[in-house]
Design goal:
The complex is a heterodimer. In chain A, 34% of the residues lie in helices and 4% in strands. Chain A is mainly alpha-helical. Chain A has a two-stranded antiparallel sheet. By secondary structure, chain B is an alpha/beta fold. Chain B has a domain of 277 residues: Alpha-Beta Complex (Amidase signature (AS) enzymes), CATH 3.90.1300.10. In chain B, helix 9 packs across helix 11 and helix 9 crosses helix 12. Classes of the chains: A mainly alpha, B alpha/beta. At the A-B interface, helix 1 and helix 2 of A face helix 9, helix 10, helix 11, helix 12 and helix 13 of B.
């Protein structure tokens, strides 16, 4: 199935990727080529088949709900590009009113 | 007795340490010297920790003197693919977006290496976030195959295989999502293992596709792979997908032979699609297995031809979710200027990620988006079920399944980098195993008559049946008599 420019723009926005025009054009062609290849899965009758999300025969692995060791605030912030008062700092999120 | 510190197996080095024929400092220094001599040509390392390794080696030698060894391999050096978190040592995943990140903790694989006393020499190159089959997608330059410097070492764990093949370290850890240990091991003439999903903890392994990712040993001999897997395998409470059981000693009984073992040859892989030299090498390998007393029979795995399609929907889907965390807030790169937080994240991600990573994020986001989920991701998960069912049926009549690891020997740098789909198809024999979760190994079959480059035989076992897999791989390796000989060493020094 060919993917159009509108779909590329939509997906880029969902994925938070500020792609250039040139990247968007290339992406449209490459994604179309890949999706055409995977299209062969549409020829199979898969209605009676159950999906597999992971290959383990484990489910609902639980542990006691008790606090264990974790990073200190300083350790957690040590790699942050920007921080203030012991918190991660980011540019404005909400419009000023 | 003197021991060859460059080319000995890890098992032989451990024996030399035990016999007092060499020290850990000797072998660690030998690895450093070897990398100094070859790595400007290979570009295997992204980050070296020589001083730290020598310090760890001195501590290992002291422990040996004082009789309080951490393990049989205490003092044998190692290196890790740069996707394992290493406390206080930079970890980049070969991505600009993680440049400068210093992890505050060790991955479990690394922690267990330290607990066994293995000095860590550094971090090895890969395709960015392990997405690729050649290391050409590294944000920090391509690694080179020591068998032919104009060719790729395979990927994504290509830095690891280039260094081990060149004698720069006896063993290394790589990781797999769709063949990223077995394929580069095959292209570099090495042993590479994809353990059963859940056998080795994924804690601290930077996630690509969580339902497929699994760490695996890269070594020059089958025994070393069995030993290294044994060091890291076993339950880890930090990984909810870790099997709740201890790992057996895979060296125990590894030499018991394969007389009477039933081995399946995949009907759908016969002949087609592989280079003549690869096909001939694999046919010869089948004869070796027969000579060793195995009974070969044909098995049918019709769903395998849909493996690549299912994989290139499932893996990007999971990747698009996992890589959402790289947003310029908590670690790594952040764009210089942005008017609000959404622009900051979008610019950070566009500038920080390379082309292949962006392609997979886009593909995965598309496959998971409203209106397409059932047609793509949903169907791919059903194909996963078919692959598991085909394998289960085959294992009703055989103990193991064999096929080539890759359809071709190492390709030229640049040959496939402009065509993403051609690159994806080089994983055709390996990805179905990741989808099913089974154990598999690539073992060298010598070199192709076409081009003198290594060929790998893939042996696929049932889930958690690594012991049978190692027995067959060991018997094959011993009978072939290639590993450990001059013929198994790349002609790197002649070209120097």
């Amino acid at each position: 199935m060919p993917i159009d420019r509108q779909a590329v723009d939509h997906v880029a926005r969902l994925a938070r990727l500020d792609l250039s025009d040139e990247e968007r054009e290339r992406m449209q062609a490459e994604l179309t080529q890949i999706l055409e290849h995977v299209e062969k899965i549409q020829t199979l009758d898969l209605d009676p088949v159950q999906p597999t999300s992971q290959a383990l025969d484990l489910s609902n692995v639980m542990r006691p709900d008790v606090a264990g060791p974790c990073l200190t605030q300083a350790e957690a912030l040590a790699n942050a590009p920007d921080q203030e008062d012991g918190r991660f700092r980011v540019p404005r999120i909400l419009e000023e009113t | 007795m003197s021991v060859d510190l460059t080319w000995s197996s890890a098992v032989a080095l451990a024996d030399a340490l035990a016999a007092g024929d060499a020290t850990s400092v000797d072998m660690t220094q030998a690895c450093i010297d070897r990398a100094d001599a070859v790595d400007d040509r290979l570009h295997a390392y992204l980050h070296r920790t020589n001083e730290r390794a020598l310090e760890q080696a001195r501590a290992a030698d002291d422990r040996r003197k004082n009789g309080n060894l951490l393990s049989r391999f205490d003092g044998v050096p190692i290196a890790y693919k740069d996707i394992f978190a290493t406390k206080d040592v930079p970890t980049t995943c070969a991505s600009r977006i993680l440049e400068g990140w210093i992890p505050p903790y060790d991955a479990t694989v690394v922690a267990r290496g330290h607990a066994a006393g293995l000095p860590m020499l550094g971090k090895l190159n890969l395709d960015e976030f392990a997405m690729g089959s050649s290391t050409e997608n590294s944000g920090f330059g391509t690694s080179h195959n020591p068998w032919d410097l104009e060719r790729v070492p395979g990927g994504s764990s290509g830095g690891s295989t280039a260094l081990v093949a060149a004698g720069g370290v006896p063993w290394a850890w790589g990781t797999e999502t769709g063949g990223s240990v077995r394929q580069p091991a095959s292209l570099c003439g090495l042993v590479g293992v994809k353990p059963t999903y859940g056998l080795v903890s994924r804690y601290g392994l930077v996630a690509f596709a969580s339902s497929l990712d699994q760490a695996g040993p890269i070594t020059r001999t089958v025994s070393d792979a069995a030993a290294l897997l044994g060091i890291a395998a076993g339950h880890d409470p930090m990984d909810a997908t870790s099997y709740p059981r201890a790992a057996p000693d895979y060296l125990d009984g590894i030499d018991s032979g394969i007389e009477g073992m039933r081995i399946g040859i995949v009907k759908e892989f016969a002949g087609e699609g592989s280079q003549p030299g690869v096909r001939a090498g694999i046919e010869d390998a089948y004869r070796v297995l027969e000579k060793l007393g195995a009974e070969l029979e044909e098995v049918s795995l019709p769903s395998f031809e849909y493996g690549i399609s299912a994989y290139y929907l499932i893996a990007p889907a999971e990747a698009s979710s996992n890589l959402a965390r790289f947003d310029g807030v908590r670690y790594g790169y952040r764009t210089a200027e942005a008017k609000d937080v959404v622009e900051m994240m979008s610019k950070t991600r566009d500038e920080g990620f390379g082309d292949e990573v962006k392609r997979r994020i886009m593909l995965g986001t598309y496959a998971l988006s409203a209106g397409y989920y059932d047609a793509y991701y949903g169907k791919a998960q059903k194909i996963r079920t078919l692959i598991i069912q085909d394998l289960a049926k085959a294992y009703e009549s055989v103990d193991l399944i064999v096929c080539p690891t890759t359809p071709s020997t190492a390709f030229k740098i640049g040959e496939k980098s402009a065509d993403p789909l051609a690159m994806y198809l080089s994983d055709i024999f390996t990805v179905p195993v990741n989808l099913a979760g089974n154990a598999a190994i690539s073992v060298p079959c010598g070199v192709s008559a076409d081009d003198g480059l290594p060929v790998g035989l893939q042996i696929i076992a049932k889930s958690l049946d690594e012991a049978t897999m190692f027995k067959a791989a060991f018997a094959f390796e011993q009978s072939l008599g290639w590993a450990g000989t001059d013929a198994s060493r790349p002609p790197l020094d002649g070209a120097a």
